Predict the structure.
Amino acid sequence: MANPMKIRARMIGDIVEVKVLMSHPMETGLRKNEAGEAIPAHFIQTVLATHAERTVLAAQWGQAVSANPFLSFMFKGGQKGDVIRISWTDNKGDSRSDETTIA
Amino acid sequence: MEQGRRRFLRSSGGLIGALVAAGFIGIDEVRAEAWNAAAFESKDLDQLIRNLGGSGAKATDAIEIVAPDIAENGAVVPIGVASKVEATEAIAIVVERNPNPLAALFTIPPGTLPALQTRVKMAETCNVVVLIKAAGEFQYAAKEIKVTIGGCGG
């Protein structure tokens, strides 16, 4: 399983700002290794952010999202201490899910 | 027993799966979207819009794209997007001259601001197009970013 995500969530007025740093190679499938063989594509395809059993952001990604992806978004309706959960799945079926509380 | 439980947890997608199985979270609330392969294989903006279920898009200046004019490293180009279009329900980041132009597609539920930031790879200098869907209509804005080192090389 991949390394944990770094997730920060904080209140700015009545808005929750979430910043996520994921650990993933995000291989395009177009690069070649030193022997000239294609490196197989390996990238995150879906991302889901939930707060209080509600989806606050859903994303689909292609190969063009940078390695070790960064994502920042904002939503209303959260409060200090609430749990934010982020999950991803990649094209090889690997997945990861981490959570943090709103600061 | 323990072994079987671990295998079940892994096969059901970790904790989310376990929570769903235990009835803590309704399946609808936590279901990730299916990956839209056709959209990600689109080779240009027109094809992409068709694959997202639209027929055309109009240019707007109500979408703000915050990105550098010149990206020194095409492998990591920070892109910020903010839509001022009311009821923006989806945001797509499209790098026009990448082998697969669609980089990311976001669904914005009510209560989430149509403003986000991420980082994308760019193969060469080109327009980054931000396509949004609001009230069933597609609108877009573009910004040219010059790339000095491509993001898809070795």
